[in-house]
């Protein structure tokens, strides 16, 4: 295969894999801590100075990359119940009546939320159908309660779950109401409020929730978490930024006018883009220099390895010569070289790890046929296609005619010390393992592996019985029945 085709294929595969990984991780595209936490609660920021990988990522990824626990910025939302006066606990048959301003039908009355983008806050709301008329008539003793909210700021969402009489719960459009509520009965609602992004540019908002037709209401203060705490500790003209040409904020340099780069090391006149890091990414949202180097004014400088033989390469440091497949614990099986994650095999070798020899000499049978004509040579090893044949070169056929006669003399001399080969037995007959058993214990025809049952006559004119097979390790195996007295 053409080397250029192999390299191109490897590069496209690497790009596809990296793009697939980043498509599901929107965190790493954030440039600032504020942008990071607005993507969603799964994204956290590393403010450690000198941290080179993407600073916005999942927390476990940042910690694996070396971010310290103290360097993690991960603000969470909170909820505070500011006013929580209980609903009125009076029965309708009490003679002394309350004035309208003494009746409280809804609890709580005031709540303050701090909302992080994508992180919902929940609280429970109780409504009690208290006596609201000093001269209540029977037909007014049952009612429907419907919660309604004031207009929501853009990017704020609210949902209700009602818990009505008899354990009935409703969601979505029916989650904000309960029917047939008699005086003195309570119903409860679960409220969930969530923000996306940074609504109202971070300015606090107030919304109200009230039961339709009643005066009582719940006041909800919405505070939006749009920036990190480290934003307050920014250092203008920080020496951490090249020639103090930027403000150090949450571990990164925010460059002064006319300066660009991660450390404000570039002049705007030196590069052709507002974001020099963009020239160091192989694709949108991918790591700068594939996380294997540094972007210096729009050009990747690949990092060095402890082993000088191991090197990163490529425009985006996307290649290396050490992460190819291995065989027998050797890179490319010791039969090729690694280029951009792909093994380029030496002559007479193939496979992902160059572990498949093309040489067929190890498959040559004694008759000079590859695998005895009964199989195929696969990476230097015979794979027998005729099920009757076995062995390293598919030459052994335990069930073929002539097997018994072929092994008879060696079996006799080893088992009974008689026969034509008794004087040369040690020299000629050590090629099989042997076990003497009672005749009833001989392997049966259906036992694996393939077995040949033999009946031969010994020198003393007695018949003897044996089986011949090739075991799972490819070795000859014989079981001989002892002479019966």
Automatic annotation (TrEMBL):
Q: Which InterPro entries match?
A: EGF_extracell (IPR013111), EGF_integrin_1 (IPR040622), EGF_integrin_2 (IPR057073), Integrin_beta_N (IPR033760), Integrin_bsu (IPR015812), Integrin_bsu_tail (IPR012896), Integrin_bsu_tail_dom_sf (IPR036349), Integrin_bsu_VWA (IPR002369)
**Integrin beta subunit tail domain ranges (all copies):** 404-484
Molecular functions (GO terms): C-X3-C chemokine binding; collagen binding involved in cell-matrix adhesion; fibronectin binding; integrin binding; laminin binding; metal ion binding; protein kinase binding
Record key words, sorted:
Calcium, Cell adhesion, Cell membrane, Disulfide bond, EGF-like domain, Glycoprotein, Integrin, Magnesium, Membrane, Metal-binding, Repeat, Signal, Transmembrane, Transmembrane helix
> Signal sequence span per UniProt?
1-20
Membrane topology category: Single-pass type I membrane protein
CC annotations in GO: cell surface; focal adhesion; integrin complex; synapse
Q: Where in the cell is it found?
A: Cell membrane
Which residues does UniProt call coiled coil?
none
Q: Which SMART domains match?
A: INB, Integrin_B_tail
Does the record carry Hydrolase as a key word? Answer: no
Q: What is its main location?
A: membrane
**The keyword Lyase is assigned to this record:** no
| Residue intervals of the Integrin beta subunit VWA domain | 32-228
One Pfam assignment: EGF_integrin
Tell me the Gene Ontology biological-process terms attached to this UniProt entry: cell adhesion mediated by integrin; cell migration; cell-cell adhesion; integrin-mediated signaling pathway
Q: Which family is annotated?
A: Belongs to the integrin beta chain family.
Q: Which PANTHER family match?
A: INTEGRIN BETA, INTEGRIN BETA SUBUNIT
Put simply, this protein is called Integrin beta-1
């Amino acid at each position: 295969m053409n080397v250029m085709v192999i390299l191109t294929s490897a590069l496209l595969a690497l790009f596809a894999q990296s793009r697939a990984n980043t498509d599901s991780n929107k965190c790493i595209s954030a440039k600032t801590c504020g942008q990071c936490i607005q993507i969603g609660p799964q994204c956290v920021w590393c403010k450690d100075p000198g941290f080179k990988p993407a600073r916005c990522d999942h927390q476990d990824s940042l910690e694996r990359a070396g971010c310290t626990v103290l360097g993690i910025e991960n603000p969470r939302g909170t909820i505070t119940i500011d006013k929580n006066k209980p609903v009125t606990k009076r029965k309708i048959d009490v003679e002394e009546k309350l004035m309208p301003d003494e009746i409280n039908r809804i609890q709580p009355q005031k709540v303050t939320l701090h909302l992080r983008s994508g992180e919902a806050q929940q609280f429970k709301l109780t409504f009690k159908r208290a006596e609201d008329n000093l001269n209540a008539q029977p037909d007014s003793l049952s009612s429907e309660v419907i919660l309604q909210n004031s207009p929501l700021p853009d990017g704020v969402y609210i949902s209700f779950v009602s818990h009505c009489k008899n354990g009935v719960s409703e969601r979505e459009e029916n989650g904000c109401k309960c029917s047939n509520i008699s005086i003195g009965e309570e119903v409860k609602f679960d409220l969930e409020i969530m923000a996306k992004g940074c609504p109202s540019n971070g300015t606090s908002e107030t919304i109200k929730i009230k039961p339709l037709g009643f005066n009582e209401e719940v006041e909800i203060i919405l505070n939006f978490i749009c920036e990190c705490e480290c934003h307050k500790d920014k250092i203008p003209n920080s020496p951490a930024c090249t020639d103090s040409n930027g403000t150090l904020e949450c571990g990164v340099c925010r460059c002064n006018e006319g300066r660009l780069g991660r450390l404000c090391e570039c002049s705007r006149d030196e590069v052709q883009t507002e974001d020099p890091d963009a020239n160091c990414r192989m694709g949108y949202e991918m790591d700068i220099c594939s996380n294997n180097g540094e972007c210096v004014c729009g050009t990747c400088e690949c990092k060095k390895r402890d082993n000088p033989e191991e090197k990163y390469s490529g425009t985006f440091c996307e290649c290396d010569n050490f992460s190819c497949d291995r065989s027998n614990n050797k890179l490319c099986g010791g039969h090729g070289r690694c280029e951009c994650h792909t093994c380029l095999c030496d002559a007479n070798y193939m496979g992902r790890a160059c572990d498949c020899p093309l040489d067929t000499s190890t498959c040559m049978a004694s008759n000079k046929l590859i695998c005895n004509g009964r199989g195929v040579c696969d990476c230097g090893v015979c794979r027998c296609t005729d099920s009757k044949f076995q062995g390293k070169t598919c030459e052994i056929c335990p069930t073929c005619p002539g097997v018994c006669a072929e092994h008879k003399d060696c079996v006799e001399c080893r088992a009974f010390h008689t026969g034509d080969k008794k004087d040369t037995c040690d020299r000629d007959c050590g090629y099989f393992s042997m076990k003497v058993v009672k005749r009833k214990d001989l392997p049966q025809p259906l036992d694996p592996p393939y077995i040949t049952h033999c009946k031969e006559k010994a020198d003393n004119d007695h018949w003897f019985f044996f089986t011949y097979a090739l075991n799972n390790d490819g070795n000859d195996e014989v079981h001989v029945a002892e002479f019966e007295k």
